[in-house]
Amino acid sequence: MTRKNIAILGGGNIGTSIAEGLIKTEFISPESITITRRKTHLLDYLAEKGLVVTNNNIEAVENSDIVILAVQPKQLSDILTEIRSILDPDRHILASVVTGVSIQEILQDLDKDISTFRVMPNTAIAIQQSMTCIATQNATELETQIIMDIFNKLGETAVIEEELMASSTVLGACGIAYSLRFIRAASQGGIEIGFDSDIAQLIAAQTVKGAASLLLENSNHPEEEIDKVTTPRGCTIAGLNEMEHQGFSSALIKGVITSFKRISNITD
Fold this sequence. Notes:
The chain has helices spanning 13-24, 44-47, 57-62, 73-83, 103-110, 141-152, 165-192, 197-218, 222-229, 235-245, 248-263; strands spanning 6-9, 33-36, 52-54, 66-69, 93-96, 116-120, 130-136, 155-159. An eight-stranded mixed sheet has the order 3-2-1-4-5-6-7-8, sandwiched between helices. Helix content is 51%, strand content 13%. Helix 4 links the parallel strand 4 and strand 5 (93-96). The chain is elongated, with a radius of gyration of 22 Å. The chain has two domains: 6-160, NAD(P)-binding Rossmann-like Domain (Rossmann fold), CATH 3.40.50; 168-263, Orthogonal Bundle (ProC C-terminal domain-like fold). The protein is α/β, with parallel strands linked by helices.
């Protein structure tokens, strides 16, 4: 990465997860990260690790090259007004993880043309396993690579068109809950067939982790891996067929579409 200093405006859950992840992966030295919060004492544990902790957003931006906006949506306009005069289009890159606020809305508040990214991670960012979607309207390839380098340290990234941000929220962020609900249901089934709850959850969770790893590491279609564990008249195909008879895939697809309609305010 060619730019060294990062300011994270907003020391809540996502802001601290980004900071801690970058330190854990040794992507950047702690003193190169400034993180802000009104109640700075809540970030004392980060200061002990060497990060710069302050409640001064202007100071944080002045000492940075990359500014990550990690505040609540209702706070964003005031923050942008506060830092607008010191943002330098020739120096700074903005990356917003604020839900539901477009790049155009950010640029309108700033009233200047500055390289801006909209970034959508999910809650697995807390353990550096996020699926993060990134969109931009006005950044260079080098600037895009800089932002990807940061968030690749916190999981996997994909560059998408901004118009797909609502879709990425459903599939990537809501998808965490969908996956956890599957694990919960599989665990309950495991209890029905004889396991205690702790072992059932461990088996279900590790199995899902393994299944995902097969796809990510081998780049195979799911059906290729399914075929490897289904045999004629076997228990796997019997279980899969029963799930499909009960609407398993259909229910999941309908759930994804329903979430998308809700986030997009689409009515039937």
